[in-house]
Design a protein that fits this description.
By secondary structure, the protein is mostly helical. The chain is 70% helix and 0% strand. It contains 11 helices and no strands. Helix 7 crosses helix 8. The longest helix is centred in the N-terminal third of the chain and has 35 residues. The protein is globular, with a radius of gyration of 21 Å. 21% of the residues are buried.
């Protein structure tokens, strides 16, 4: 996880140098910002800010993330056929069709169609990536039971199902790289539009971050496969 932070910092520095040289230009704009005096935070201030941030996140969980999870569940449930196994039902559902339709795009990264769908869902908010994966990898205990060791300490069902789908640690890290770098949430894109005054930079940000994430994750996966 620490390496992901390092990758994010390195990529940010590299891209800022590239943009400052080839995109933004060399004109320097004076920037002066007055900073307040720094003081050691009090327990009361820490508690207040923690409560406010926690409340904001809970509101987000109860609105955007909950709504997205319901939509993902509905897409995975319909059209429903009770004669199919849970795995077959997922593959024949709307979300399964969407995932398989975009699967060729992520072949160089080794992603499964379920990972592909969670990336699309994460456009609304990065937290939706995790909730989508939880929804897609829940409910099918047959794979987990067959994959779990018979020593009284079975693997977690989600981990077992992901392993059965061919998601190795290498694929998982490539996936984390993609999530780290790709399309920021819609709220960020809207903020960029408001700050820049046009949709040009907002659309550019969405496109270049997604392309950068695709290249970095695919390059890492393909090179690591040759080394490991």
């Amino acid at each position: 996880m620490i390496s992901l932070y390092v990758v994010g910092i390195v990529v940010a520095v590299i891209m800022s140098r590239v943009f400052s040289r080839y995109v933004v230009g060399k004109e320097d704009t004076p920037f002066v910002m007055e900073l307040p005096p720094y003081r050691f935070p009090t327990s009361k201030a820490i508690a207040r800010h923690t409560w406010e941030k926690g409340k904001q996140y809970l509101k987000k969980m109860g609105s955007i993330i909950l709504t997205a999870s319901i939509i993902v569940w509905a897409l995975g449930y319909f059209p429903h056929n009770s004669q199919l196994t849970p795995q077959q039902q997922q593959e024949q559902s709307y979300i399964g069709r969407i995932g398989k339709a975009i699967a060729p795009v992520f072949t160089p990264q080794g992603f499964s169609w379920k990972l592909d769908v969670s990336l699309v869902a994460g456009v609304g908010a990065k937290e939706i990536v995790a909730s989508t994966m939880g929804e897609l990898y829940s409910g099918d205990e047959t794979v987990a039971d067959d994959s779990a060791p018979d020593d009284g300490h079975k693997y977690d069902a989600v981990r077992a199902q992901m392993t059965a789908d061919g998601i190795t640690p290498l694929v998982a890290y490539s996936y984390l790289l993609f999530v780290l770098l790709y399309f920021p949430c819609l709220a960020t894109i809207a903020a960029i539009k408001n700050e820049s005054g046009s949709w040009k930079w907002a659309i550019f940000t969405a496109l270049y971050t997604t392309a950068l994430a695709w290249v970095v994750s695919a390059l890492f996966y393909q090179v690591a496969r040759l080394i490991i």
